[in-house]
Amino acid sequence: MDLSDLIDQKAVIPAMKANSKKQLLQLLAEKAAGVTGLPEREIFDTILQRERLGSTGVGNGVAIPHGKLPGIDRITGVFARLETPVDFEAIDDQPVDLVFLLLAPEGAGADHLKALSRIARVLRDAENTAKIRGTKDAAAIHSFLAQTPASNAA
Amino acid sequence: MDQGIYVITLVGTALVLFAAFSSLIAFRFGAPLLLIFLGIGLAAGTDGLGLDFDNAAVAYFIGSLALAVILFDSGFGTSVAAFRQAAAPALVLATIGVLMTAGLVGVAAYYVTGFGWLESLLLGATVASTDAAAVFFLLRVGNISVRERVRSTLEVESGSNDPIAIFLTLSLVGLIASGEAMQADTLAADVAIGFLQQMGIGLMAGLVGGWSIVRLVVKLKLEQGLLPIFVLALSLLVFALAGAMGGSGFLAVYVAGLIAGNAKLRSTAMLKRFQDGVTWLAQIIMFLVLGLFATPSQFADIILPALFIGLFLIFVARPLAVTLCLAPFRFSPAESAFVSWVGLRGAVSILLAITPLIDELPNGRALFNIVFIIVLVSLIVQGWTVGPLARRLGLTLPPRMGPLNKVELELPGSARHELLAYRVVAGSPVERGQRIPRWAKPSLVVRDGRSMTYQYAGRLSAGDHVYIFVPDRYPRLLDRLFASPVEMDPEDADFFGAFSVDPERPASDIEAAYAPGLSEDEQKKTIAELMRERLGGRAEYGDRATLGEIELIVRDVDEDGRVIAAGLSVEPQAPEVRVPLLLSPRDLMRRIFRRKPRPDAGS
Question: Which alpha helices (H) appear in B462-506, and where do they start and end?
Fold first, then answer.
């Protein structure tokens, strides 16, 4: 299993420009609205609500905002690579430049969590994130995301 | 006779110095420093350089005094909070665990040594206790940071189980020496009464003694230099009085240490430093003397059964006893495995093995030699592998904060305040502009050799020395402000949980985001309250509370045990339990060439 079944190549933003966490989340919600056809406002509120609980910045410049969205029919991801990192209140205080937004239907339960942990694992791989940071090509980023990291596979 | 003094002193000091020097080498090898002391004793003894020391009574006497000093110090260094937290599992281990280990080893010994039942059980009793000195050394100096509950359990167990093993051994020796013509039931009754008497009097003497030490230190305005000596002498007095009254002196001196160490004396810091030194000396002397006393050329006769019993103890008896004893308490399999592996045998076992020789039991020598080998096996096999094991079991904690450059100064006249001197480290929160709380405004800043007020100094920069007066229970928060940043290790994400959670938020937020199935009542609580409840009322750094498919992890607690930072893991899975039988050659090489661990900057 890799991430390609969670995210479409169309949902990759290869060079996003955002100045703040809020703007970043707004742009992500906008993209997600385009992919899913659901209202942008609702998506934005959902992920913002989760951020209030605590930052989803997982360290080393990576954030994985996520939330449950009524009306969405399957687990859907949006990925953004930022031109300049923004502060995300991450655990290690490092600004964030790789963001994977994950939206799950209400009843997704275990699948939602499994998807989250897989994303966390792929984006924990330093080699992989270096490759993603080094390109502005959506197709290339999508293929890097689809790779299963060799280390941390345990 | 004049010459005698010089020769003995010369040899004695040379041995101690050599042992102290060897610690420099031993730090690179990790654990078995005590093994080296023992080895030096052996090397200098009858079969090595030829120092002929064969006086069982003197060896026992010196060893007992050294042990009393060590136990007082281990009590002194154990905080009451740690003691309370770990008292139940540790005391079960220290009593039932010791009995079980003694019994199991006794049975094994019966079948491989050709001793009688009583002698076999005696052998079991001598090696039944976990050695406080070895365990403390491993946990504190060996740079292993395990979960607080595991550490406290081990420390309290090893500190408090010697009296039981000592009692068992002495009873059995007495029994064998007196001939075996006693009724089983009167015997059991005698042993039980003897046990209650020893422990009861020991405990009382310890409580009264500890309290008296505290009162005397506070009341008498003793010369500062004299104070540590005074406390040391008092502790030995407690030991001797308890013993003379028919109690366990070892229990008494441990309890007295526990009380004195937790009394928040003004001079606690100084006493600790002094006792640190004395304990080192006691360790060195004890191991040297015991090494000197042994005669390795006799080991050949018993080496096979001894090795067998040693391995049986490590791989069967101790794990079995620990697993059963810890079953009622909430320990993970990895933690149980660690507790049983750190059950090192040490000087106490060898010391106890001398008692049959003093009473001239027929198989005394063989028994002593077997115990000696068992201890060697334990120190080598377990002592050497504890660090890698802790890491492999996933029990080591990532550091809470980066290295810190701090000195605590004792102030004359006031027991309520402390003067802290921090050196500002590049990358620390204060250096990056974080504010220092009002109650901790620096009194003085020293920059480039010039002293100035904080107001004048303005923003702190790396290399500044900052002096701060604080109430003695200053929060750890202050340390964090001055600590260098922690490097995030990918492994830490497993440990802390990938996502952050604000513990002050209501638990209903968790339910909304992850639907772990919280009840109505639970959703009304804050996350901190929920975690504390799920963790049995006490949250501790690194604890994990499972909620359905997710886990909440305690990232930090404040002084009152409230969760102030929490993480969330979406992949709850216990670390794989792999118990390495031996160190791989690669690990071994790495340990050999590793640099000496940095001394703790806080002390």
Answer: 476-482, 490-496
| pLDDT for B485 | 64
Facing residue for B490 by CB, picked from A49, A114, A124: A124
pTM of the model: 0.65
**% of chain B residues with pLDDT over 70:** 81
Rounded (to 5) percent helix, strand, coil in chain B: 60, 10, 30
Does residue B478 come out as left (phi exceeding 0), alpha (psi in the -120 to 50 range) or beta? alpha
pLDDT value, residue B596: 40
Tell me how close the Cα of B572 comes to any Cα of chain A, in angstroms: 10
Q: For B9-40, how does the pLDDT look when each residue is reduced to its tens digit (9 = 90+)?
A: 888 888 888 877 777 766 555 546 777 788 88
Tell me the residue range of the domain where A147 lies.
Answer: 3-153
Mutation test of the interface with chain B: which of A75, A89, A101, A116, choosing the one with the most B Cβ atoms within 10 A?
A: A116
Of the candidates A3, A18, A47, A66, the residue annotated as catalytic is A66
Cβ <8 Å between B505 and A124:
no
Query: Does residue A112 carry a catalytic annotation?
Result: no
- Residue B282: CB partners within 8 Å, gap ≥ 6? B65, B66, B67, B69, B70
Report residue B371's pLDDT band, with 50, 70 and 90 as the boundaries: very high
Check CB contact under 8 Å for B509 and A64. Answer: no
Q: Which long-range contacts (CB under 8 A, 24 or more apart) does A38-45 make?
A: A38/A69, A38/A71, A38/A72, A42/A69, A42/A71, A43/A69, A43/A103
- The per-residue pLDDT for range B302-349, each reduced to its tens digit, is 889 999 999 999 999 999 999 999 888 878 788 888 888 888 888 888
- Between A and B, how many residue pairs show a Cβ–Cβ distance under 8 A? 73
Please give the distance of CA B318 from its chain centroid, rounded to a whole number: 18
Split into its structural domains, chain A has a count of 1
The band of B405, judged by pLDDT with boundaries at 50, 70 and 90, is low
The reply to whether B504 touches chain A by the CB within 8 Å rule is no
CA distance B281 to B141: 16
C-alpha closest to that of B146 among B203, B65, B82: B82
Sequence length of chain A is 154
Q: Which residues of B166-193 are buried (b: 16+ CB within 10 A; e: fewer)?
A: bbbbbbbbebbeeeeeeeeeeeeeebee
B413 HSE (CA, 13 A, CB side): 1
In this prediction the ipTM stands at: 0.85
**Phi-psi map region of B267: left, alpha, beta (phi>0 left; psi -120 to 50 alpha):** alpha
Q: What is the CATH number of the domain that holds A122?
A: 3.40.930.10
Q: Does A59 touch chain B (CB under 8 A)?
A: yes
Q: Using the beta-carbon criterion (under 8 Å), do B493 and A93 form an inter-chain contact?
A: no
Chain mean position to CA B528: 30
What percentage of chain B exceeds 90 in pLDDT?
Answer: 14
Q: Which of B175, B101, B199, B163 minimizes the C-alpha distance to B356?
A: B175
| Gap from B549 CA to chain A (nearest CA, Å) | 7
**Which residue from A53, A58, A91 is facing B513, i.e. has the nearest CB?**
A53
